[in-house]
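User: I'm new to structure prediction. If I give you an amino acid sequence, what do you actually give back? Let's try with this one:
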Amino acid sequence: MLEAIKQARAAVGMLNPDEVRRRARLPVRIGLVAFDGAGYAAMEDFLAPALDQVYRAGDPGVPDQVDLVLYQQGIPCPQDAYLLRFDDPAATVAEILRDHGDLELALASRFVPFRKPVVERIIQAVSRENAVFAVATALPNLVPSLGEIPWAFGEFASDTAFLTANQVRMAFLIAAACGKEVGYSQRAAEILSIAAGAFGWRALARELAGKIPFGGGVIPKGAIAYAGTFAIGKGLEHYHHAGAPYTRAQREEVYQAAFEHGKAIAEAVRGKL
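Assistant: Good question. You get back a string of structure tokens that encode the predicted 3D arrangement of the chain. For your 273 residues, that looks like this:
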């Protein structure tokens, strides 16, 4: 769990829109292998409209190396390639992301089928990081023996600063995955929304942690950190997809469901710490 906390701290160290843009703009060359023109057309439709780095096998100008190769169903597929299963494209996408996590932002920014799963991965990862941090920073006050742990959180003087910064990083990552421009000016409205909500629900979390005896407040504090981050992430995803923010009812529904999941995560984190 300490390693997970260090990873969360390092993640916020990447609160740099230039780095997010660099990852989103990495070149991704995809090779296609199909029976005939109709097969190639179907595979290209799946990847459209970003076809400038998609190559048909045997065509002139195909590069010597590509980042991944997709095979049409019915053609024997080697182990280092992927079968594009039109009956279950999500399985193909999941396999590619499992093997090419370093390209997930670049894939999502260019190819629509990768967007939703990549955004979901981002939201889940950042929400869990914030839950781990919220629980970990509460425990030294409850268990004195943990006070000597070298937290090494550097410039983040409070959990509010860390959680907010991590949510801003999440906003950059989600925007990049959705093919949008990334930067403080481009995402100003989203950042202001995150900052505006930073103190309300986290003040409640601190109050719960302080008033419930024997460390019981650690669980709701971690659950609130998880649920608040998750609700922000899903709201950003909906905004980029639908062009409109969540309604209040939608926000509350997402938050309540995430809070229950956050409690389970917080309990597991406290147990391990």
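You can read the tokens as a compact description of the fold. Here is one thing that stands out. The first helix runs from residue 2 to 12.
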